[in-house]
Write a structure and sequence with these properties.
Number of helices: 7
Helix content: 25-40%
Radius of gyration: 14 Å
Family: Belongs to the NDK family.
Protein name: Nucleoside diphosphate kinase
Distance between the termini: 20 Å
Structural class: alpha+beta
Strand order of the largest sheet: 2-3-1-4
Subunit structure: Homotetramer.
GO molecular function, one term: nucleoside diphosphate kinase activity
Number of strands: 4
Order of helices and strands: EHHEHHEHHEH
Organism: Thiobacillus sedimenti
Bound molecules: inosine-5'-diphosphate
Strand content: 15-25%
């Protein structure tokens, strides 16, 4: 499997819980390297644009309200099979269904406040990375 990049968000609930380091440590100890990182309080427009694919879903407004409720950590992770690896480390969307030992099982409260986002495919990873990071802020191959 080739080296890939994926986009990660540590969501407002996990930032409020003070577990940024614990989550990043899971990435690093599982072969994912942080190649871009910044903390940001998303505007409503940024959150709506990021989750535009869900705009017709009943949970869209709650999702956007939650994503603008506090600062988040935006990151690009790089490594072998990074997209699937990150999704495995995150666990299922609903923390009640997430495997023990996954980030969501350990740090998330609910399907709304579920600690992390991770890209689900190479195409979405490329779009999501470019949405928040200009190429000059991604330190690949360091
Ligand atoms: P993912 O984050 O595991 O990829 P998606 O289906 O892409 O899950 O959904 C994006 C986000 O929308 C989820 O992480 C979660 O915060 C929220 N979400 C998804 N489904 C529901 C739901 O049924 N109720 C409330 N929020 C949801």
């Amino acid at each position: 499997m080739a080296v890939q990049r994926t986009f990660s968000i540590i969501k407002p609930d996990a930032v409020k819980k003070n577990v940024i380091g614990k989550i990043v440590s899971r990435f690093e100890s599982n072969g994912l390297k942080v190649v871009a990182s910044k903390m940001k309080h998303l505007s409503r427009q940024e959150a709506e644009g990021f989750y535009a694919v869900h705009k017709d879903r009943p949970f869209f407004k709650d999702l956007v309200d939650f994503m603008v409720s506090g600062p988040v950590v935006l990151q690009v992770l790089e490594g072998e099979d990074a997209i699937a690896k990150n999704r495995a480390l995150m666990g299922a969307t609903d923390p009640k269904k997430a495997e023990p030992g996954t980030i969501r099982a350990d740090f998330a409260e609910s399907i709304d406040a579920n600690a992390v986002h991770g890209s689900d495919a190479p195409e979405t990873a490329a779009i999501e990375i470019a949405y928040f990071f200009p190429a000059c802020e991604v330190y690949a191959g360091r």
